[in-house]
Each structure stands twice: as C-alpha cells, then as structure tokens.
Design brief:
The complex is a heterodimer of chains A (117) and B (111). With 117 residues, chain A is mostly beta strands. Chain A is built from no helices and 12 strands. In chain A, the strands form 3 sheets. In chain A, strands 2, 5, 6, 10, 11 and 12 form a 6-stranded mixed β-sheet that branches. Chain A has a 4-stranded antiparallel β-sheet with strand order 3-9-8-7, with no helix packed on it. Chain A has a two-stranded antiparallel ribbon with strand order 1-4. Chain B has 111 residues and is an all-beta fold. The chains are: A mainly beta (117), B mainly beta (111). At the A-B interface, strand 6 and strand 10 of A face strand 4, strand 5 and strand 9 of B.
C-alpha cells in the first residue's frame, strides 16, 4: 500500500515570499504520478500541478513548481511570489499506474498554508 | 458551465435516516469517483465507476452504495446514517485517469 506524508500541518508566510511545502511518499511501484491539490475555504479541490515519475524534469505551472526526488521519494511544492489567494489547504497525492482499470488517489493529510498581508 | 456538480451542498439529518447525494458531470468522462473528507481534512477514496462497473470499493461499510443511472451520474446512497458518517463527500470524474475533476463537495452532518 502507498502512503503519503505531509509533515507540516500548518505554515504561514508573508505575501510575496516564497514557500515550500514538503511531501514524502512510500511505494514499491516504479511508474506512478504525483499531484498537488489546493483546497481553498470554498472547499473546491483544484489541481495545482502533477508530475509523472518517469520524467526527470520537474513540473512547473506559473508560480508553482515541484522538486521531485525519486530516489528519496520526495515531492515538494514551491510557491513563488505568494499571493493572498494562495491561502488554502494543500494536499499531496499519489497515484500508481493502473494495471486494468482506473485507480484512486492516495492523499496526504494536508498542509494549511496561510499567506499574511 | 459547471463541470462536476453535486446536490445538495449541505445535508443535515438525524441518525438512522437514509439519504442520497447526487453527482452529475457534463464532461463526457468515463469514470466517476466518490471521496470522503473527514473532520481532520483527510481525503480517502470510497468508490469509482467506469462505464457503469464498480472498479474500486475501498473498505467502506455496505450502508454506502453508489448508483449510476448513466455515464453522467454517480449518486451516493447512505442507509442507517451514523454519527461517524459526518464528513464532506466529494464526487469527481476523469477521462484521462491521471486527472480528476472534483465537484464542490457535500457537507453531511448527522445529529
């Protein structure tokens, strides 16, 4: 079974600062996907970024980037120039490549990120 | 324009009652899911349906039953509600299995 660990229950930074959220996972799979989801106070789950394990290049989406270290099973999220609207719960998630039908996501317990004005 | 919608948004009910949460997606996706988010914000998959076939069923009590009348709908029926069922329930859909589109969630409160 896969596990996803987010060791920071809550983080707080000033607007415009850069913040890094940590995530580690445990799996025996070689092919898999990793995700960061954002859940603002509106409760909506929004995909922020995803990474295929077979790709060495770190994924980036505008101000969001990841540091994927496959050997260390680490998948951190960096938010540059943080904005007030980035305040949300952030969930790291793992998905193994399915063998015959879709598979579900395994989520970490989340990090509550607060951006201070 | 809503991609994945759920009704109701809030549901408050008494212990022992039977209730349903509806989910609809207008994306033409083949697979739909139900997730449960507990009071500690922990998200866990409950079910997924692909072309009307249940393909995942985690260790969920059989009081919970997903029903899919067609590819665009996956409703969640819950019988004999218990206090521990209080949570936020998310519906999601996907075509590319690696990307989920989530609904807005339904907050269920059992009194």
């Amino acid at each position: 079974a896969q596990t996803v660990t987010q060791s920071q229950p809550e983080m707080s930074v000033q607007e415009a600062e850069t913040v890094t959220l940590s995530c580690t996972y445990d799996t025996s799979e070689n092919n898999y996907y990793l995700f960061w989801y954002k859940q603002p106070p509106s409760r909506q789950m929004i995909l922020v970024i995803r990474q295929e394990a077979y790709k060495q290049q770190n994924a980036t989406e505008n101000r969001f980037s990841v540091n994927f270290q496959k050997a260390a099973k680490s998948f951190s999220l960096k938010i540059s120039d943080s904005q007030l609207g980035d305040t949300a719960m952030y969930f790291c998630a793992f998905m193994k490549q399915p063998g015959g039908g879709a598979d579900g996501l395994t989520f970490g317990k989340g990090t509550h990120l607060i951006i201070q004005p | 324009d809503t991609a994945v919608s759920q009704t109701p948004k809030y549901l408050v009910t008494q212990m022992g009652n039977d209730k349903s949460i509806k989910c609809e997606q207008n994306l033409g996706h083949d697979t739909m899911y139900w997730y449960k988010q507990d009071s500690k914000k922990f998200l866990k998959i409950m079910f997924s349906y692909n072309n009307k076939e249940l393909i995942i069923n985690e260790t969920v009590p059989n009081r919970f039953s997903p029903k899919s009348p067609d590819k665009a709908h996956l409703n969640l029926h819950i019988n004999s509600l218990e206090l521990g069922d209080s949570a936020v329930y998310f519906c999601a859909s996907s075509q590319d299995w690696t990307r989920r589109f989530f609904g807005p969630g339904t907050r269920l409160t059992v009194l």
